[in-house]
Design brief:
Helices cover about 35% and strands about 20% of the residues. It has helices at about 75-90, 105-110, 115-120, 130-145, 160-170, 190-195, 200-205, 220-235, 260-270; strands at about 35, 45-50, 65-70, 95-100, 150-160, 180-185, 210-215, 240-250. The relative contact order is 0.12.
């Protein structure tokens, strides 16, 4: 009688398990702080962005403040704070706190009132730059000075309509800041009236030390003509302690001028003292 043999069990080969890749750790990049600052003057909370130089938390130093108009996170805050960071890393400029003040309605906030009926019809909310200046002076600057170690040295920077606001502030309220940087200012607004009135405003200045940096690209007669009027008034009426400069940038356009001009302004305003 034949013996019954069960078939030999086939060897079980374990399935190959591929090695698991190491876990990828995701960390957000934080370059600053953003605040929704309540504003009674503007009637709503407004976005204020702040970049602090490396080492701020470990030091007891006080720092100059650069206020950047159109300083929202989707506006000019990142590329201007990037210039400040680079200058700190490579040691070419002094440490500075960058404060970006976001714009919401630029022609309302940055343009002085116009008498041009076409501009009024096109931009019915225009012409509230005085109110925005009060917001900076009475709400933004006190907030920054109370929260951060500021040295008292201040500057205001802006491009295009924000550059127009910078020039207007220098002419009408020069005591608000120590230095002013106006890149491609829209002096054509209201037919160039601000540039024509510059002499009258300059005659009212106290003579305290101020710096005004102006620059303009190859942007046509509409932009160039009022700049020529402004610089003529500055040559005639600026007081000895009002240090101003105008740098033409013929290889730049309105769309390309800002970053390089801002870098040059940093190197001028925040030059490292030679040892």
């Amino acid at each position: 009688m034949a013996a019954n043999f069960a078939p030999a069990a086939q060897a079980q080969t374990p399935a190959h398990t591929p090695p698991q890749p190491p876990e990828v750790v995701e960390t957000p990049i934080v370059i600053g702080q953003s605040f929704a600052l309540p504003s009674a003057i503007m009637g709503a909370a407004r976005e204020i962005n702040v970049w602090l130089p490396p080492g701020y938390d470990q030091s007891r130093e006080r720092y100059p403040i650069l206020y950047v108009l159109d300083g929202g996170q989707d506006q000019d805050f990142h590329h201007i704070s990037g210039i400040a960071q680079l200058g700190t890393i490579v040691g070419t400029t002094r440490d500075v706190i960058v404060v970006g003040v976001a714009s919401v309605d630029r022609r309302n906030e940055l343009a002085l009132p116009t008498e041009d009926p076409e501009l009024i019809a096109r931009y019915p909310t225009q012409g509230q730059s005085d109110r925005f200046r009060r917001f900076l002076s009475e709400e933004v600057q006190p907030f920054i000075n109370a929260r951060y170690r500021t040295s008292g040295e201040t500057a205001l920077m802006g491009e295009s309509l924000a550059g127009l606001f910078v020039v207007e502030t220098f002419l009408k309220e020069p005591q608000m800041f120590d230095a002013y940087v106006a890149v491609s200012p829209s002096l054509w607004w209201d037919g160039g009236r601000l540039a024509r009135q510059a002499g009258a405003h300059l005659r009212d200045h106290s003579g305290d030390p101020r710096t005004l940096i102006l620059t303009l690209g190859d942007e046509g007669e509409m932009m160039q003509a009022p700049m020529d009027v402004l610089t003529a008034n500055l040559r005639q009426y600026a007081l000895p302690n009002e240090h101003w400069s105008f740098t033409p940038r013929p290889t730049e356009t309105h769309a390309t001028i800002y970053h390089g001009a801002a870098l040059d302004a940093f190197r001028q305003l925040y030059a490292v003292d030679p040892q």
